[in-house]
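go over this chain:
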Amino acid sequence: MDKLWFFSETRQIFWVPSEDSIVDETGVPKTGLAEFEVELKDANEFATFCDRSDQIILVSSANEFPTDYLAAIPSNLPRVALIKSGTPAPAREQLDKLAFDSYVVSPFDDGAINAALQKSFDDKDSLISLQDELKNYSSIAFTAMSSASEMGVVACYAQSVQNIADMDRLASQTLRSLSDLSVTGFIQFSFDDGVDIYPRDISKNYKDLLEWTRTSTHRIVSHGRFLIFNFENAQILITDAPVEDPDKCGRLRDVIAHIASIAEARAKTVKANKLLKEQQDNTRMVMMLLEMASRDNRNSVRNIMTNLSIALRELAMGLDLTLEQETAMLKLSEKALASLESLHEATDAVEVHFRSLVLQLDQAAKLLETDETAELAETETNVELF
């Protein structure tokens, strides 16, 4: 541990790589220290030696220290003052302005001096350790707040998309959340019947990259400032990941992965709701056509069979048939009419089944309906990170 000793009485300066005191009982340097004495021409050279030292000891007596030398002492350098008896007030005031870590007053004892030197160094070392620890705690706290804020974006996003029933608005809210995280990106929704990319104005290279993503088996791919999140029906491309900050970049990977997962789940719901409504409309149309056809057929058949029955009666009377023959012919007509009634009953059963199916589709659609008021009240404000 290198110590810098400065004696005001003799203006001597010693740079000693030793932890022991070099002062005798009268406050002057001990003998045999010539090899450690340094000749400095100005305060700049003195400042250089201060920077190379672990501790400075000022031995004050009747003479004052040069003010420019004292001004060159770094504020973080541990310092001890040794004050000889009879030191005038101006010299003492010089030392008071420097706020020394420890003072020793003559007569000087090696044990007392060494204890003061060690205590000064230990206190300074403890203070530095405490400052470093506080910096670490501050860094941890900042990271925790940042993480909480970033997860807050996810929570707000999940809340804002739960009532969205339109793919365009879902994409818009997703891109807004990415903006809240201070990144720029694109989102792609891919289903069997088509692929949609947002924003629409995307370069061919980015479009090809998203197209390649659909065929990839990797869930998350990173390369430089690019991040890709690949889910079955949703893909997100980030073009400006903060690669210069690995911790932040790592957190964002997790956060955006959550957003991509939520986006895909909502996109599937929106798509399923759309398909359900289409099937609901198609089924309702089939039901209407079936009812119309059944009604028309029933009326037509009834008219036909009624006319046929009348014609058979008239014909039976003109053919000079026996009563048994006439009765048998009429029974055939009635049997045919009864068979048609059974057919109508089967048609009615089909209609009842279709009505039940339409009712079930209506109930399912009602469960998937979104609150339009809630949609209009969707949060549009950005989330500010710490």
Notes: Residues 140-146, 372-386 have pLDDT under 50 and may be disordered. The chain is about 60% helix and 15% strand.
